[in-house]
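Thread title: Can someone regenerate the structure for this chain?

I was given the following input by a collaborator and told the matching structure tokens would be attached. They weren't. Posting the sequence so someone can regenerate them.
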Amino acid sequence: RVHLVPGFIDSQQADWIFEQLLQDIPWGQRTHIRQEVSFEEPRLTCWYGELPYTYSRITMQPNPNWHPVLNMLKERIEEFSGYTFNSLLCNLYRNEKDSVDWHSDDEPSLGTNPVIASLSFGATRNFEMRKKPSQEENGDYRFVERLRIPLDHGTLLMMEGATQEDWQHRVPKEYHSRAARINLTFRIIYPEPEGVWK
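Best answer:
Regenerated them for you:
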């Protein structure tokens, strides 16, 4: 289940929020290791929440010091959606070369059927989704159903139900120049049982 709310934050307020977050969030670039090769993530990130969060074998340490603008946005989304979020992954796409590859937000700490509220500011970027192939298709993504959703300044995208179980998503690199974009993904994180493989 995907719910798109264009103009969730009106453009004038969204302009102000974008500038505040760009300046104030302690953005950092993480390093991944894949098949013994290390490479830097093609975007900047920052984590907020009482608990650590592990994805792609990188653990982001707890950071309970929420920026007041982020607290205000969290409360507004909670009032709108009826969910209570306890954590937030912030992403900064500096230009058209920054991206995030195909993945599902299905880490054990997110629980079953996670709810993710994704709020975008700045340049419009395409958010692409593709359905995971059935077992008969044996991991072949060539013929699966695909969606492309342009996420504009101030747009809220809610992902619920079996979205993460059945679909993958990405923000691809673009060929034309793009200004900076900030994406905030509010999540509900649960303490991970000891010994869970990450």
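Residues 2 and 159 are 5 Å apart (CA to CA).
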